Amino acid sequence: MTKYIFVTGGVLSGLGKGVTAASIGLILRSRGIKVDICKIDPYLNVDPGLMNPYQHGEVWVTRDGYEADLDFGHYERFLDVEIDKDHNITTGKVYLSVLEKERIGEYLGQTVQIIPHVTDEIKKQLEKIAQMNNPDILIVEIGGTTGDIESMPFLEALRQIRMENGKSNVLFIHVTLVPTLEAVGEPKTKPTQHSVKELRAIGIQPDILVCRSGKELPNETKAKLSLFCDVRKLDVISNNDVESVYEVPLVLEKQSLGDNILDRLNIREKKHDMKNWEKYIHKMKNPKSEVEIAVVGKYTDLLDSYISIVEALKHAGTANDAKVNIKWVESIDLENNPKRVSELEGVDGILVPGGFGERGSEGKIISIKYARENKIPYFGICFGFQLAVVEFARNVAGMKKAHSIELNPKTTQPVIDILPEQKKIKQMGGTMRLGEIPFTIKAGTMAYKIYNKKEVGERHRHRFEVNPKYIAKFEKLGMKFSAKSDKNRRMEILEIPAHPFFIATQFHPEFKSRPQRPSPVFDAFIKAALKK
Ligand code: GLN
């Protein structure tokens, strides 16, 4: 029978619950335990696909074409797995299913209520996930903060699962904050005490507290939390700030979290082996050189909006023994004041990530032109691919009106057009060209050198594409389309062979980048930047 670890969050959001859950997964797996991981998101959206990245950070895309919360990125990166859409439960999904059942009469005249109907549905969805891969342990992260009204039905369902399955099969780990006021200098335990009180009010006594703090928690603070929160001292784990999130598993394991969990779950202790991970951290922390990459984006104020890009750059950096310094450039500033392109002087590479909508797009085009003309390594992703085509059309092919239909629906030179199958779509949620799609790379191209094979699959998320009408013209002028999909109908990779490194992809390679297995395109980009 699968055992459960529920990871809840207290005090405030953005504490790194996802990183903690993923780290616990890594720790357990390093002992040969079969783990699986999933997430509950208590918001009403059916999936986060339509949420503004400003509110929620990046939208993660799964292999099977689901738009998920960015925590799925942590899971996939830490555990080097691919997690599919059925591993996300949202309030929207739960209610949708309950209401559909109600409409077809499945509840046989009963009054449909939060308890037991909604909680039963939550339990059923969790059980289904547990049965899918049959892990020894299923880690379940609960989004939001304890005390939020919207997470109540979920916590109630989890309480029931613990009661039904027993303490040795269900563990509660509460991730919380222990802040230190600079002027006082002492870590404060009260917020954690209050959030544990909230959990207890619904009948959940957490087993282990993982405490986010600036510095390592002193012994007295651990003792105090132990006393007031009714956990043993060894159950108070310090999750203090570290340079890189990839160090978190080591920080937790140093405090015997793995032994503690297995002990409580009655799993005979196995020897852990984290040497490989330790070696990776050592390599990451001892770079031999540095590169500066400008990322020109629209959501640069909330760095979580580009988290997978940042991680992919770091993975590629470590693989090349280099520290990657990111220079954030706000595209709207460049658009309003093109002279600010001088901010790009001296960078080793320019990256334009995925994006939507007009605001800031001309700023991105300015940066692409700068990279192309000044022979600075350029890497465009999705929107950064499409805008590279617009820039080339305008400035090399002399098509002054060239534009993307997304940004100017009336343009007479639509070099980026809507995907034919997207034309009839009215419903916006979950309807983009999504998920992993295979494509074929032409031999003898830079793309082929990068991937070193012909057939590749990468994850997509878009509605627009290069208009096939203009391809012959662009190819004549020196922009090559080196990978195509859908029987050569869709353009997937473009490159300019006369430029030292100018490559762009319609897909998002960042979603398949892993710490010890960087994305080939990111790797090539960093190599080119190092050569500059
Ligand atoms: N807005 C563009 C499209 O829908 C690009 C999307 C993206 O960058 N993810 O095609």
- CATH class membership of the largest domain: Alpha Beta
Beta fraction: 15-25%
End-to-end CA span: 55 Å
Helix content percent band: 25-40%
The CATH topology of the largest domain is Rossmann fold
User: In the CATH classification, which architecture of the largest domain applies?
Assistant: 3-Layer(aba) Sandwich
Question: Biggest sheet, in brief?
Answer: 9 strands, mixed
Please provide the count of β strands.
21
Strand order of the largest sheet: 11-10-12-13-21-20-19-16-17
Write up this protein:
The protein has 18 helices and 21 strands. The protein is α/β, with parallel strands linked by helices and 532 residues long. The protein has two domains: 3-279, 3-Layer(aba) Sandwich (Rossmann fold), CATH 3.40.50; 288-531, Rossmann fold (3-Layer(aba) Sandwich). Strand 19 and strand 20 (490-495) form a beta hairpin. Helix 4 (91-103) packs across helix 5 (114-133) and helix 12 (307-319) packs across helix 18 (520-531). The chain starts with a strand and ends with a helix. The relative contact order is 0.11. The mean pLDDT is 94.
Topology, please?
Blueprint: E1 3-9, H1 17-29, E2 35-41, H2 53-56, E3 60-61, E4 67-68, H3 71-79, E5 88-90, H4 91-103, H5 114-133, E6 137-142, H6 152-165, E7 170-177, H7 190-201, E8 208-213, H8 219-229, E9 236-240, H9 248-254, H10 257-264, H11 275-285, E10 289-297, H12 307-319, E11 322-330, H13 331-336, E12 349-352, H14 361-373, E13 378-381, H15 383-395, E14 402-404, E15 413-418, E16 433-441, H16 446-451, E17 455-462, E18 464-466, H17 471-476, E19 480-485, E20 490-495, E21 502-505, H18 520-531
The structure holds glutamine.
